[in-house]
Amino acid sequence: MNNKTLMENLRCIQDFPKEGIIFRDVTTLFRNPDCLRIMVDELYDIYKDHGITKIVGIESRGFVLASALAMKLGAGVVLCRKPGKLPGETVQESYEKEYGTDTIEISKDAISTDDVVLLHDDLLATGGTMHAAFNLVEKFKPKKIYVNFIIEINDRGLDGRSTFPAGTEISTLIRV
User: Fold this and answer.
1) Mean pLDDT throughout 135-163?
2) Contact call for residues 63 and 120 (beta carbons, < 8 A)
3) Which of 8, 19, 24, 61 is catalytic?
């Protein structure tokens, strides 16, 4: 955890999107081929023996590593998107955000009861979006659900892990 190369290449932007926030910008990790390889290799090492059949990438930064890792694991990719972005029938989950309600959705035929699912996103802060994605994937009744983030933010009193049911297996590559 907290690989030196990843930490050195993670851009932190003060006071974005508002004063007092330190924005952790994973795009600097995505555009660096060494960092991209390190992240995919670390994720592969974590999940290679878990029988993952589907990786759900959360819009939109979650799509990047979900796709790269799925190729390495021999798994499929499922997109978790905002409403109206996916064709065909979908299953939705709404959740409360700081300033209102938001909704995410997955294609109705994307996950089966035989699947072992890894949910992946770039950042765990409050946990709201991923918790909604977790609840959404639970509706499909897969064999198992794992949760992963590139970065987990624990400063400023954030504890996104506490939003998940006890026993949820959550991993992160970087904790700040």
Assistant:
1) 92
2) no
3) 61
